[in-house]
Specification:
With 156 residues, this protein is α+β, with helices and mostly antiparallel strands. It has 2 domains: 66 residues, Orthogonal Bundle (Arc Repressor Mutant, subunit A); 45 residues. The chain has a 3-stranded antiparallel β-sheet with strand order 1-3-2. Helix 2 packs across helix 3. It starts with 14 loop residues before the first helix and ends in a 9-residue tail after the last helix. It comes from Candidatus Nitrosocosmicus oleophilus. It holds the Pfam family B-block_TFIIIC. This is B-block binding subunit of TFIIIC domain-containing protein.
């Protein structure tokens, strides 16, 4: 564990403050990572609270947990996830033309619409407005494809 993390118990004011400080501690540990057991000791957390807090960071895809044997006990080694910079990633232009005019953004039933409850009468799967919009958009797409020379047409 990194020597920057080890020290006196840290004061924490709120849950979000605690989460931020724990994430900062994991970040400081770098590629070496930090053991969950040591992190719990540092922040005076019991294993249950520490596990929940770390699980929350993992769900947010901020860290990874790797099972490890530490001082004769199983724990997790916590490491900050590496992010891919936009320079390294192939940048693609965003094309919003496919969602222009989507009816959901201005639908008066949007707050009632859900695909989780099959008995709900307001559902994207049952929506006649979405169906009409898709058919119209597809027809426009086909017409524009027919107008382009064959070399410029995209194949689906």
């Amino acid at each position: 564990m990194s020597s920057e993390i080890i020290g006196s118990k840290l004061s924490v004011r709120s849950k979000s403050d605690l989460i931020d400080k724990v994430f900062d501690a994991i970040t400081v540990s770098g590629e070496e990572g930090v053991f969950q057991t040591e992190l719990c000791k540092l922040f005076s957390l019991d294993s249950r609270d520490g596990s929940r807090l770390v699980g929350n960071l993992e769900k947010q895809s901020l860290i990874t947990r790797e099972k490890a044997l530490y001082r004769g006990r199983w724990t997790y080694k916590l490491v900050v996830k590496k992010t891919i910079s936009m320079d390294a990633e192939e940048q693609k232009p965003i094309d919003v033309s496919m969602v222009e005019g989507a009816p959901c953004l201005c639908c008066s039933y949007q707050h009632l619409c859900s695909n989780e409850d099959e008995s709900n009468q307001y559902s994207p799967a049952k929506c006649q407005i979405i169906e009409e919009w898709i058919v119209t958009s597809f027809d426009k797409f086909i017409l524009t494809q027919e107008e382009q020379p064959p070399s410029e047409q995209e194949f689906i």
